[in-house]
């Protein structure tokens, strides 16, 4: 029977680099990473596991002059064996098995002594302690980011002479010379024109304020992109696509490291303060996951097991959304619905606890001074009518259309950035987009204010004392029943605000396309909500005026009486925000819960559900992928989507490597290869693992050994043992035969051999193979026929096959 060579292709490992086993080797083909996308000096942020394990000092000899022992690595673990290289996929089955073995050993020892029992209890409690620390650190960092961003955003317009550390609102809170109607004006707060030319009136003062606004925006943006480029290239973007990929089992060292955390926290404040059309909510998930990953190193249970660490990261993602929106339950559901790949019940409980602690910590800091966790918290009390489901569904349709439009245009722009010279100049790109945004934003008060403040303004339910232009209605009544204001005719301020909001909507739609994906921290939640909130407020005001002037219409007269508060424009803004966010991210359950926690109104769940589902249906009809999945595919991350069905009738033999005209499969034999033979195979190939067979003639499968484990074991034997030479025989068997005289010592590596690799037959339908890869998180699967090894299928092969079946370019499925 002919043999094949060509399993587990991996171009990421340098050919001939036998001694440098720490270079990336993977079962996924890797492309060269651009300098702006990674920094190899930061790998130590996530050190390889098991480095401190004791060294093996035994060796095996044979024949005259040797100790007549076979070197057996079963005696003590070898440092580095069982760990993974960068840009590699973890073996979920092996990691879970190792954790069960560890837990079983601790449980058995706990019966032997009191100290072992205490160790067992502390091991069980360590997970909850870790969740507590993650919640405290995430909440504290979120509070720091909120306070700093609020202050620096106001710094673009002026400074508080009573204390430069006060933002505009806090500055005027302490003033004795402020009126309720003009509570944002006080002598302690000075605009830049007042400080520079001592006046705030006239065209020249306007130009000075305009210039300072643009200058501060450019300065903040330049600092943000420079810090990211120089110190932590992984700190750019939202981070959620990469976190989804990491949670699925992929390793990107440094992405959740300490430098990334520090730089992302600083640059997130700068990016938000620059006035760009981006939010901090998505990056806060990245920040929380960095906290979780770093704190994992304090606990051996999580530091030494990649699968357990990913359970912690799922809980950290929930804590990140919890502090981003003040929605602990929504955060847990977001982690479950959107980012997590493996989410057992225990992780659900711990995610809830971490989200609770994070929200409590942020509430204790009280960054906005309103005893709320977010700036745009609102409360509505007016009930909605069944007829209003029609405009709510229209908002859902708008959200779906906007989501599909945004994803297509943003992905096209990001692809252009990656494939043209544009990607080589991230600083210039950021400065140009910032300049355009600032120049267009300053003349319009709704684009000049921060996006969170804009959403708060749009969500607001107008009261008698509101001085906003959106609440400039004509008051044609004497009393208000039950403290509620009736529907009123719009005044001049409302009509002016409508035009300004329409221009703001156009600017936000266009500029967000070019902003998301730049080399700075940039979230998408807030810009998407702003687009929907503007559209919703415009529709809400239109419905309100329609109901006021045409109360006799059949659709209104049955439920909207004269002088009643029938329509709440702020509710339409909230529904529109949910619709647009759902259209972009394709969230449903978690989105509705987040919006419900923002408003605190149970009666608005049905409108939110209607809008969220409508937006998802419309967006899915125009494109199946959400924005995060689209960016995962754009970047070529090896992410196997668990939500999609594979319905093609292909077999394992159609996908496995090698194919008919491919080189033969490289295999190791269990008892007939020397150290030199194995080193030659390692240096001449780039595969990340090798099947082990009884003999080349029989091709009967024995097991599977990883390239990294082979390299570490052989190098460890050469350094620590005397007599191991190139002609030493390597045994993967349990017992080795007697050795003739003058034979060099042999090397027994059975303990690094996976004796139960997952196998399928050549006639297994690919539908089942894909399901196995998804549910077990496999790296590779061996293909046999009547017990004889035929080939191998890797996760990369599965992804390529799915892309090919969907008429996509299969070569796009690689990490680039």
Automatic annotation (TrEMBL):
Biased composition annotated in UniProt, kind: Low complexity: 12-25
Region Disordered, residue ranges: 1-26
One GO molecular-function entry: ATP binding
UniProtKB keywords: Antiport, ATP-binding, CBS domain, Cell membrane, Chloride, Endosome, Golgi apparatus, Ion transport, Membrane, Nucleotide-binding, Repeat, Transmembrane, Transmembrane helix, Transport, Ubl conjugation
UniProt entry tagged with the keyword Thylakoid: no
InterPro entries: CBS_dom, CBS_dom_sf, Cl-channel_core, Cl_channel-5, ClC
Residue ranges annotated for the CBS domain, each copy included: 656-720, 752-812
Location of this chain's protein in the cell: Cell membrane; Endosome membrane; Golgi apparatus membrane; Membrane
Membrane topology: Multi-pass membrane protein
One GO CC term on file: plasma membrane
CDD domains reported for this sequence: CBS_pair_voltage-gated_CLC_euk_bac, ClC_3_like
Catalysed conversion reaction: 2 chloride(in) + H(+)(out) = 2 chloride(out) + H(+)(in)
Superkingdom, natural source: Eukaryota
PROSITE patterns, per database record: CBS
Membrane-spanning intervals of the chain: 125-145, 210-235, 312-336, 386-407, 427-444, 497-517, 524-543, 571-596
Pfam families: CBS, Voltage_CLC
Family statement drawn from the similarity comment of this UniProt entry: Belongs to the chloride channel (TC 2.A.49) family. ClC-5/CLCN5 subfamily.
Function: Proton-coupled chloride transporter. Functions as antiport system and exchanges chloride ions against protons. Important for normal acidification of the endosome lumen. May play an important role in renal tubular function. The CLC channel family contains both chloride channels and proton-coupled anion transporters that exchange chloride or another anion for protons. The absence of conserved gating glutamate residues is typical for family members that function as channels.
Subunit (UniProt): Interacts with NEDD4 and NEDD4L.
Name of the featured protein: Chloride channel protein
Organism name: Colobus angolensis palliatus
């Amino acid at each position: 029977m002919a043999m094949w060579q060509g399993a587990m292709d991996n171009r990421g490992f340098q050919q001939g680099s036998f001694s440098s086993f720490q270079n990336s080797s993977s079962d996924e083909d890797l492309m060269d990473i651009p300098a702006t996308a990674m920094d190899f000096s930061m790998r130590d942020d996530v050190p390889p596991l098991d480095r401190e394990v004791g060294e093996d000092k035994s060796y095996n000899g044979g024949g005259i002059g040797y100790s007549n022992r076979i070197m057996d690595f079963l005696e003590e673990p070898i440092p580095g064996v069982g760990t993974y290289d960068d840009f590699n996929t973890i073996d979920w089955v092996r990691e879970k098995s190792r954790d069960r073995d560890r837990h079983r050993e601790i449980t058995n020892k706990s019966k032997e002594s009191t100290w072992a029992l205490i160790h067992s209890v502390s091991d069980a409690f360590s997970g909850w302690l870790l969740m507590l620390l993650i919640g405290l650190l995430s909440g504290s960092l979120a509070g720091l980011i909120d306070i700093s961003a609020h202050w620096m955003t106001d710094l673009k317009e002026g400074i508080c002479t009573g204390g430069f550390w006060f933002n505009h609102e806090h500055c005027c809170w302490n003033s004795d010379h402020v009126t309720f109607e003009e509570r944002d004006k006080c002598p302690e707060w000075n605009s830049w024109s007042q400080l520079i030319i001592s006046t705030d009136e006239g065209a020249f003062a306007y130009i000075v304020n305009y210039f300072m606004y643009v200058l501060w925006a450019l300065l903040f943006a330049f600092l943000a992109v420079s810090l990211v480029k120089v110190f932590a290239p992984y700190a750019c973007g939202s981070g959620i696509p990469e976190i989804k990929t990491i949670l699925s089992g992929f390793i990107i060292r440094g992405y959740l490291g300490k430098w990334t955390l520090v730089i992302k926290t600083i640059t997130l404040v700068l990016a938000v303060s620059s006035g760009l059309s981006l939010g901090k909510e998505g990056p806060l998930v990245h920040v929380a996951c960095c906290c979780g990953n770093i704190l994992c190193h304090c606990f051996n249970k999580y530091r030494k097991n990649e699968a357990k660490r990913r359970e912690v990261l799922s809980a950290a993602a929930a804590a990140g959304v919890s502090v981003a929106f003040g929605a602990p339950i929504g955060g847990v559901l977001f982690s479950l619905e959107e980012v997590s790949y493996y989410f057992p019940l225990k992780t659900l409980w711990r995610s809830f606890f971490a989200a609770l602690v994070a929200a409590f910590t942020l509430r204790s800091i009280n960054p906005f001074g309103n005893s709320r966790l977010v700036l745009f918290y609102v409360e509505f009390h007016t009930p909605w009518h069944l007829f209003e489901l029609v405009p709510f569904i229209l908002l859902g349709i708008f959200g779906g259309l906007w989501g599909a439009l945004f994803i297509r245009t943003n992905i096209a722009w990001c692809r252009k950035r990656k494939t043209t010279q544009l990607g080589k100049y991230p600083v210039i790109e950021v400065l140009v987009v910032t300049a355009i945004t600032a120049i267009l934003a300053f003349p319009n008060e709704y684009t000049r204010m921060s996006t969170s403040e804009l959403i708060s303004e749009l969500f607001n339910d107008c009261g008698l004392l509101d001085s906003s232009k959106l609440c400039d209605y004509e008051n044609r009544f004497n009393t208000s029943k039950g403290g509620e204001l009736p529907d009123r005719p719009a005044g001049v301020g409302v009509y002016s605000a409508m035009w300004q909001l329409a221009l703001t909507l156009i600017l936000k739609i266009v500029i967000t396309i070019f902003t998301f994906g730049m080399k700075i921290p940039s979230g998408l939640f807030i810009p998407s909500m702003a687009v929907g909130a503007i559209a919703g407020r415009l529709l809400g005001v239109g419905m309100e005026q329609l109901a006021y002037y045409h109360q006799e219409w059949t659709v209104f007269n049955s439920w909207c009486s004269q002088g009643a508060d029938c329509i709440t424009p702020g509710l339409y803004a909230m529904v529109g925000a949910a619709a647009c966010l759902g259209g972009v991210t394709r969230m449903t359950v978690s989105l509705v819960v987040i919006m419900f926690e923002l408003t605190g109104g149970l009666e608005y769940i049905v409108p939110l559900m209607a809008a969220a589902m409508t937006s998802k249906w419309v967006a899915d009809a125009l494109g199946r992928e959400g924005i995060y999945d689209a960016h995962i595919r754009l970047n070529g991350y090896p992410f196997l989507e668990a939500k999609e069905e594979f319905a093609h009738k292909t077999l394992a033999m159609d996908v496995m490597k090698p194919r008919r005209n491919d080189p033969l499969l490289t295999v190791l034999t269990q008892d007939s290869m020397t150290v030199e033979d194995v080193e030659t195979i390692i240096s001449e190939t780039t595969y990340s693992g090798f099947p082990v067979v009884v003999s080349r003639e029989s091709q009967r499968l024995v097991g599977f050994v990883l390239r990294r484990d082979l390299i570490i074991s052989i190098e460890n034997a050469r350094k620590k043992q005397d007599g191991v030479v190139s002609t030493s025989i390597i045994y993967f068997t349990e017992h080795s035969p007697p050795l003739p005289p003058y034979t060099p010592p042999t090397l027994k590596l059975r303990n690094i051999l996976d004796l139960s690799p997952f196998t399928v037959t050549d006639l297994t339908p690919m539908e089942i193979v894909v399901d196995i890869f998804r549910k077990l998180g496999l790296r590779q699967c061996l293909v046999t026929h009547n017990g004889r090894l035929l080939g191998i299928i890797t996760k990369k092969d599965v992804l390529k096959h799915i892309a090919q079946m969907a008429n996509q370019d299969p070569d796009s499925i690689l990490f680039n």
